[in-house]
Amino acid sequence: SKAEGLNRLHVFEPGLLLIRRLRSQLLEDLRAAIKGEGLVLHYQPVVELGTGQIEGVEALIRWDHPTRGRIMPDEFIPLAEDAGLISELGLWVLSTAVGQLRRWIDADLVDSRFSVRINISATDLQSLQFIEDVRAVLKQTGVRPAQVVLELTEAAIVRGNDLDRYSLGGLRGLGVGIEIDDFGTGYSSISYLRLLPVDRVKVDRSLIEGLGTDPSQPALVAAVLQLVRACGLEAVWEGVETAEQAEHLRNLGCLSAQGYFFSKPVPPEQIPALLAQTSSQ
Ligand code: C2E
Ligand code: CA
Ligand code: CA
Ligand code: CA
Question: The whole model's pTM is what?
């Protein structure tokens, strides 16, 4: 009825205004954080299943907001995307993560096979400026390009037009690694796997959730591994939370994995201790 409609309007409008105000305040805060302080990268080990050694880390962003406390990326990355802040954010992540790798190399903590993985947004991928940024950061830090691996979601790549493919090719031309993130969650055909200039896939954790409980799951994992290898690629398995899952993956011939079972994402100060632990095993 008309009365109800009016009522709803009254309830709704202040709510929308509030959300809009919160949003624009949050954006202002995020802009300030990118320029100043508050953003931090945590690093989660990627482990070689055969040896237990750490072969690299994934950089994962967090935002320590002055009044709201820690905000996780799933909450503010979409906001940054919408507001056109993602390029600035992406550049910050890139230079911070590669700069950190440089310091670990200089401190002799890691060798030349150790890689840092960086999450790249679809917007970054579509910007030619991003390739230039990667080139500049590599030059400035003198890090071997192969030690930098860019993670792109299936969705970002498949949204794929020619420009995306061009950007991927351009990035790969710099010598950096390219990895498809969240593999297995997309809706698209898998035929693109063979066509795209990528090196590896990171299999989404939903594909290993049932390992150790669901008897049909090992066969599925084996099939995915076979598929990935048939395309000339290698797989990294994420979201490993239990010893059973790790053991299953190892027995199935999987090479690399990541997850809370090995380590949560940690601040960079904690990485040396983790490296020391695993190399002495
Ligand atoms: P993602 O790239 O798929 O990252 C993996 C997420 O799973 C991380 O959440 C990580 O903390 C979490 N995780 C790791 N091991 C386990 C496990 O064993 N079990 C479970 N349940 N979860 C695990 P986080 O750090 O909250 O990041 C969420 C997403 O935000 C990332 O998903 C990525 O898409 C995005 N993101 C994070 N950092 C960045 C960044 O610097 N730039 C961009 N563009 N996106 C980022
Ligand atoms: Ca990732
Ligand atoms: Ca993922
Ligand atoms: Ca994800």
Answer: 0.92
